[in-house]
Amino acid sequence: MNTPLPNLPCKAKIISFESGDGVGTLEIEGGAHVRFGGSACIGFMPDVGLVCWLIETKPNPVGGGIRAKTVNLTGAWEPDRLTQLDERNRQAQEWKQKEQDLLQSAGIKDLRATSCHDLPNMAADTRKMLAATLMAWKREGHFFDELFTRLVEVSPDVFHPYLSDLDAKREPESLAYVDAPFDAVAPLVRMLDDATEPPRRVQLEVGKVSTVLNARRDMGAASNEVGGAMLALARSGHPKAREAISSWFKRAPETAGDEAAGLLFQAGFGVAADGTLARTHSIAAYELRPVEKPARGEKKGLLSSVLRAFGARSESRSPAGSMWGTGRSLCGACHVPLIRVLKIGTAFVPHVLPDGLADEIEIWTCRNCVAVDFNPYYVKLGQAPESIFRDPPSSDFKPSIQHDSVSSEPAAVMSVPAPSRVNYMFAQERELNRVGGAPSWIQGADAVPCLMCGAVMPFLCQFADPPDDMWSGDCGMLYAFFCVDCRVVGTTVQCS
Ligand SMILES: [Zn+2]
Ligand SMILES: [Zn+2]
């Protein structure tokens, strides 16, 4: 051990390594030997024969001499693992504090408790300030995911000045393209026109560990630039953008077209056989809230004047419809009364359904059959609702789930304008009973074709938290789709 150490960093070779106790020996240029521990190795697994770099040494705690503090494969100086960890912790703490300060400056006490109505109602300048700060942080390498997601879902406009800094391929960033001005997406039209490869989706790797939220985002994301361009163009909604997409589909080979159509479907668009693009979600959306009945003997006039004095919005509107009724029609499979999930006046939910369709629309399903046996469950609306099936069930059909009680008291609801998109992960339960907008999928986007004409049905409404565990477990969601031409309702259930 008399050979002097050369200047660091220096090249070294691992000449021994015991994986059991995680220590080994490096031979460095000039022949000297230096002991090292596995924890000193940054970015690689030590193995005998491997050539690496000794970056820094420290005194050996036992027996004197020196020991490796940092070993890597690049030869570039970097702090040892413990110092790196400390630094990362310090930075994370610092960002946490900055996030708290930002929320406070926008008057948000608790982001989790902030309703999806609070953000759109916030002053435009405050939303713009939040967007500008989020984007400045993104350039510094910090992404405040929860706030970005909530803000882009309810107010994509505030991110329009920053589209060039956002990745059209990735969710939630691609949502910033919703209603984007044509100038911002014109280069993407050219990209799609000149594309030499088809738009592709992310294929989830089997066995890859990911959070549910990230996996769901990946399922909806594009994996190449052309895919990102197509998503962004569809979301911008500009007629010229849609035209570019339609003309791509007209010249696309069938399999490439299928993959691109799947990508667009996740983003809320259906592609018809002739290549035209149709929204499967509406921009207009409404939350359904129970109508508060005034308590017995309450002085209504006095109450509302008190509410006005405190600046509260009055919740006493006339009902738009009702949820959870039971009718006389029976399920054609299990023969229990169908549940009327929703009855709503179409005037209370403008721009969700085509104008002049009907004064009222009803959503029916079978509580027994929808979760397992017939998912989706189809009902044809007419004088009376009638369940319809692709393969008629046999006369001795027994549903997998049989509820003791299938009747339910209707509850009056009112409709309140809401953001077109509510993320299941970030929403409060009461915000998930909705008409219009985009479905808050639990498991990922699902196409529901019309049983009569086969077309992908547009989304109509969704319901969480039904009385008495109505679907199958307490966190299931029911989604309803409607074919206007055939007057067919399809309901489907997803559970977490
Ligand atoms: Zn049934
Ligand atoms: Zn149809």
Poorly predicted tracts of residues: 305-316
Element string (H = helix, E = strand)? EEEEEHHHHHHHHHEEEHEEEEEEEEEE
Helix content: 10-25%
End-to-end Cα distance: 62 Å
Structural class: alpha+beta
- Ligand list: zinc ion
Portion in strands: 15-25%
**Largest pleated sheet:** 11 strands, antiparallel
Q: What is the total domain count?
A: 3
Based on CA atoms alone, the radius of gyration comes out at 30 Å
How many E-type strands?
A: 18
Mean pLDDT: 87
Figure out the total of helices.
10
Strand order of the largest sheet: 11-10-9-14-8-15-16-17-18-12-13
Described by the principal axes of the CA atoms, the overall outline is elongated
Describe what is shown at a glance:
The chain has helices at residues 81-105, 118-121, 124-139, 145-154, 182-193, 212-219, 225-236, 239-251, 254-266, 300-309, and strands at 10-18, 23-28, 33-37, 51-59, 66-72, 269-271, 277-279, 285-290, 321-330, 337-345, 360-365, 377-380, 386-388, 411-418, 434-436, 459-464, 477-483, 488-494.
Task: List the SSEs and their pairings.
Layout: E1 10-18, E2 23-28, E3 33-37, E4 51-59, E5 66-72, H1 81-105, H2 118-121, H3 124-139, H4 145-154, H5 182-193, H6 212-219, H7 225-236, H8 239-251, H9 254-266, E6 269-271, E7 277-279, E8 285-290, H10 300-309, E9 321-330, E10 337-345, E11 360-365, E12 377-380, E13 386-388, E14 411-418, E15 434-436, E16 459-464, E17 477-483, E18 488-494
Antiparallel strand pairs: 1-2, 1-4, 2-3, 4-5, 6-7, 8-14, 8-15, 9-10, 9-14, 10-11, 12-13, 12-18, 15-16, 16-17, 17-18
Helix pairs in contact: 5-7, 5-8, 7-8
Bound molecules: zinc ion (2 copies).
Protein name: DUF1963 domain-containing protein
